[in-house]
Amino acid sequence: MNIQEMWNGKFSREGYLYGKKPNAFLAIHSERLPSHSKILLLGEGEGRTACYLASLGHDVTALDASDTGLKKAENLAQEMGVKIKTILADLETWRSEEKYDAILTSFLHLKEPLRSKTFGYAIDLLVPGGYFMGEFFALEQLQRDSGGPKMPELLYTLESVQQIFNRDDVTLIVIEACCDDLNEGSGHQGEAELIQVIVQKR
Predict the structure, then answer these.
(1) In which element (H, E) is residue 193 found?
(2) How many Cβ atoms are within 10 Å of 69's Cβ, its own excluded?
(3) What count of other Cβ atoms lies within 10 Å of the Cβ of residue 194?
(4) CA 156 to CA 140: how far, in whole Å?
(5) Cis omega (within 30 of 0) for bond into 113
(6) Which stretches of the chain drop beneath a pLDDT of 70?
(7) CA–CA separation, 200 and 124 (whole Å)
(8) What is the pTM of this model?
(9) What are the tens digits of pLDDT across the range 15-32?
(10) Could you say which DSSP state residue 140 is in?
């Protein structure tokens, strides 16, 4: 089963797997973004954060490998009376001609070397002053049942994330491991071990 088939299976269920409310970490820190920012969300699935950001007046594009997820994102946008753009793409081969004021992602779990390649490329696509923000499950999440993959190679350590963003062209604003309560649909519920990142392009 490829990545598209796996996520199409998850997103084909009734309702929204991670709910309709935005990722809380991204929603809170989106206050850093200037009005009418051009934002790309990677691995955005059913569109909950994309639609929220569009409701604030941003120019939002949601990228995902699941056409089923993106269709639900478009339906949610229509329900909320907002406009978003969608891109169906596999991150292994995706390339962009666009530049962005911000690239955001929540719980996009990639194996190496695709992880470093994708997040590094995201930094390359930011305009000067642009932000990358992400929230991910830490390796310690294996001990919990509040969501996330059960394969260690898909989970992140603080050190591995720091290594990706240890670049001369970014300023680290937030890069930390923490434990927090998740309330995101049926998919993410309860205390979770997280890694949170905010960097700004110089």
Answers:
(1) strand 188-201
(2) 26
(3) 22
(4) 9
(5) yes
(6) none
(7) 11
(8) 0.96
(9) 999 999 999 999 999 999
(10) G
HSE-up (13 A, CA, CB side) for residue 124: 10
What are the distances in angstroms from CA 23 to CA 118, 143, 166, 177, 189? 20, 22, 25, 17, 12
- Quickly tell me which residue has 């989970």 as its tokens: 155
Phi, psi of 91 (to 5 degrees): -65, -20
Instruction: Report d(CA 115, CA 119) in Å as an integer.
Output: 6
| 8 Å CB contact between 166 and 175 | no
CA 27 to chain centre: 12
- As a residue count, the chain comes to 202
Provide the terminal-to-terminal Cα distance of the chain, rounded to the nearest Å: 40
Distance (Å, whole) CA 17 – CA 69: 10
Question: In the chain, which residue ranges form alpha helices assigned H by DSSP?
Answer: 3-11, 24-29, 48-55, 67-80, 114-124, 158-164
How much is the pLDDT for 3? 86
R_g over Cα of the chain: 16
pLDDT attached to residue 130 = 98
SS3 135: strand
